[in-house]
């Protein structure tokens, strides 16, 4: 019988993959909790929650039952000119969890489109007012997605090199990591004074794809305050950090100042159905509310506010709010902190950091390519050991499902320690 790997190779093109040099993809046939199994029966620990989307475990029965129930009454209806109970209920359940200034929700399909909408809204808001603000501010080494505006806002150059000259204009400022706070603040102040910028977009407190780069909320508060004083909208890309990853429901919960827009996806539906949200202040919505139809936001997706996805999101939010899940988040954080205390003493570890359920360490190797040989040897080592981790250069990070057991966490930690000793 032909394997799934062989059948896959006939037709499928995988993301972030150079197919000429990459190993065949692992053919997964089943998942349960924090575990996955391939077609040969090998077990893997999903130590990154399948790209940060699956906090409540694979094949979660509570979410599956909610999806099934919804499918028996309404699987989908267009959202242009129509509405439905799951979308309205999701908005009603989500709004109390968001910062108080968030008043409106726009549905889309994934993190990139959530960002795309936020950037379009910021630019069109000023266009509708007859003001010329056509530029965006973003952090260095940011990642906001792969659609065109989201890609423009991203600062990982080899992702966007082929599209230079085709993107909106974005100016980057330093990430305010320890020691660079004032440099970042000064750069933003200088840009804000020009009145050329419509928005400042950021990953709050943690830059995920850059290697879990972390910075403090106090500096971000200062940056948001500068933007507010200069009528620059602020966009919090919480696609990765949202729904408990940082130890609070949203990374913005650590802030005194609040963004004008938030982008949410990934864990929104518990890893089941693609869905995203962009949320807005009333001021932004009002900038499109006009007798002139041309001032409307002409953006939409076929599966906008898909009822089945809304049902999955409602179930996911219900799980997040349980005492059990909140204790799981605290438990993982405690375990990560203990592992950090141990591993940062290792002579090959340059630094280690923890926020919520996110753990990251940097191996002391100097500068490493994002998808370089050292990273690939680390990745292959982890896969051979049955642990799914995707290093970024010389950075190893762990971001597990909230339901993971202590025993499986110990296996992940032991495998990381072994990798640091053996992969040089």
UniProtKB/TrEMBL annotation:
One of the GO BP terms on file: biotin biosynthetic process
Binding site for substrate: 51, 266, 300, 390
Record EC number: 2.6.1.62
GO cellular component: cytoplasm
Residues recorded with modification N6-(pyridoxal phosphate)lysine: 266
Functional pathway: Cofactor biosynthesis; biotin biosynthesis; 7,8-diaminononanoate from 8-amino-7-oxononanoate (SAM route): step 1/1
SUPFAM superfamilies, sorted: PLP-dependent transferases (SSF53383)
NCBIfam families: bioA, PRK05964.1
Assembly and binders: Homodimer.
Record function comment: Catalyzes the transfer of the alpha-amino group from S-adenosyl-L-methionine (SAM) to 7-keto-8-aminopelargonic acid (KAPA) to form 7,8-diaminopelargonic acid (DAPA). It is the only aminotransferase known to utilize SAM as an amino donor.
Protein name: Adenosylmethionine-8-amino-7-oxononanoate aminotransferase
């Amino acid at each position: 019988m032909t394997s799934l790997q062989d059948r896959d190779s006939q037709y499928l093109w995988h993301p972030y993959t150079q197919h000429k040099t990459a190993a065949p993809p692992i053919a997964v046939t089943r998942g349960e909790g924090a575990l996955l199994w391939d077609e040969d029966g090998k077990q893997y620990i999903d130590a990154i929650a399948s790209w940060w989307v699956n906090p409540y475990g694979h094949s979660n029965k509570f979410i599956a039952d909610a999806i099934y129930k919804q499918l028996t009454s309404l699987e989908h209806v267009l959202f242009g000119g129509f509405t439905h109970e799951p979308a309205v209920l999701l908005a009603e359940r989500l709004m109390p969890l968001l910062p108080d200034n968030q008043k409106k929700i726009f549905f889309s399909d994934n993190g990139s489109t959530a960002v795309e909408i936020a950037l379009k809204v910021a630019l069109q808001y000023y266009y509708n007012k007859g003001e010329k603000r056509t530029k965006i501010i973003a952090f260095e080494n940011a990642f906001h997605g792969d659609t065109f505006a989201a890609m423009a806002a991203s600062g990982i150059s080899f992702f966007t090199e082929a599209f230079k000259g085709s993107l909106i204009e974005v100016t980057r400022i330093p990430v305010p990591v320890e020691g660079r706070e004032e440099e970042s603040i000064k750069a933003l102040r200088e840009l804000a004074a020009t009145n050329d910028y419509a928005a400042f977009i950021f990953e709050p407190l943690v830059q995920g794809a850059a290697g879990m780069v972390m910075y403090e909320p106090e500096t971000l508060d200062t940056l948001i305050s500068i933007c507010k004083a200069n009528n620059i909208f602020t966009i919090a890309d919480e696609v990765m950090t949202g729904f408990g990853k940082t130890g609070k429901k949203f990374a913005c919960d650590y802030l005194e100042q609040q963004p004008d827009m938030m982008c949410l996806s990934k864990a929104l539906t518990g890893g089941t159905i693609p869905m995203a949200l962009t949320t807005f202040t009333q001021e932004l919505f009002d900038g499109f509310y006009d007798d002139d139809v041309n001032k409307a936001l002409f953006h939409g997706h076929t599966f906008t506010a898909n009822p089945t996805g809304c049902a999955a999101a409602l179930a996911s939010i219900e799980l997040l709010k349980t005492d059990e899940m909140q204790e799981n988040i605290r438990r993982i954080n405690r375990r990560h902190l203990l592992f950090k205390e141990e591993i940062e003493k290792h002579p090959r570890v340059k630094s280690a950091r923890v926020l919520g359920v996110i753990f990251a360490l940097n191996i002391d190797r100097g500068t490493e390519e994002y998808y370089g040989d050292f990273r690939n040897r680390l990745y292959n080592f982890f896969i051979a050991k049955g642990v799914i981790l995707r290093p970024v250069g010389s950075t190893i990070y762990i971001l597990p499902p909230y339901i993971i057991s202590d025993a499986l966490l110990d296996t992940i930690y032991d495998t990381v320690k072994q990798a640091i000793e053996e992969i040089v």
